[in-house]
Amino acid sequence: MYDIQTELILRRMDRQAEAASSARMSRQLAILANVAVWGLLLLLLV
């Protein structure tokens, strides 16, 4: 019984960590895309 509960908790923690890391990755990608767009706009304006 205890082993099953521990396994479920560990699995849930793994899933949460995965979701957090993927959210962080997508946030970094969004920031990179933003910087790239603004860089291109500045290059076009200059």
Textual characterization of the structure:
This protein is an all-alpha fold and 46 residues long. The protein has one domain. The protein has one helix at 2-45. It is rod-shaped and about 70 Å long. It starts with a helix and ends with a helix.
Question: What is the topological layout?
Answer:
Elements lengths: L1 H44 L1
Short characterization:
The chain has one helix spanning 2-45. It is an all-alpha fold and 46 residues long. The termini are far apart.
What are its keywords?
rod-shaped, mainly alpha, 46 residues, 1 helix
Number of strands: 0
Radius of gyration: 20 Å
- How many distinct domains? 1
Query: What is the H/E order?
Result: H
Helix content: over 70%
**Overall 3D form:** rod-shaped
Q: What summary fits the major beta sheet? A: none
